[in-house]
């Protein structure tokens, strides 16, 4: 996370209450783990539940709070434990991923509302509509973790990134806040203003955040979808 040196935060309590409801298992998604008999890198057994209910964690915060950087670091650490990771990103400003002149671009320009392209190692779907977060998560049900960047108002468990005191309102206002990652000393003045019971980490405590997601993966699996 660059040169932003933060003091490690430890010993805080797990918090958050998530409604538990059973879900049905969709068809497997290419690239995800589907073998419930296989083990994680630490030797623990991947249960039937973990095969069909990913641990979902939102990473939220205001612009330039470090969301993408944190997620990229977490992907590598979770994969090192033998986990498959999918990412969903929310972009309120609009985006364009298909280059002008390609076959899929020409097909969409001709009026196709959706175009899919697949090869031996990758697939892409271009669709002219927005999707709800719950629908996107269902497409990744066979991954071990789904990390979500943004979608602040959604009810899934969240890690909120706090750069300054003005950002503290997110921890009180947003639903499902389980932890905060703070740009200052996590035992400093900003941390003391956090709601009681919320876990807190320094913004550079990547290994501790990954361990938290790993240790509490059953909590992050029990989302309402």
UniProtKB/TrEMBL annotation:
Biased composition (Polar residues): 37-46
Composition-biased stretches (Low complexity): 1-10
Domain of life: Bacteria
Residues of the Molybdopterin-guanine dinucleotide biosynthesis protein B (MobB) domain: 56-171
InterPro entries associated with the record: MGD_biosynthesis_adapter, MobB_dom, P-loop_NTPase
UniProt region (Disordered), positions on chain: 1-46
SUPFAM superfamilies: P-loop containing nucleoside triphosphate hydrolases (SSF52540)
Segments of skewed composition (Basic residues): 11-20
PANTHER family: MOLYBDOPTERIN-GUANINE DINUCLEOTIDE BIOSYNTHESIS ADAPTER PROTEIN, MOLYBDOPTERIN-GUANINE DINUCLEOTIDE BIOSYNTHESIS ADAPTER PROTEIN-RELATED
Designated name of the protein: Molybdopterin-guanine dinucleotide biosynthesis protein B
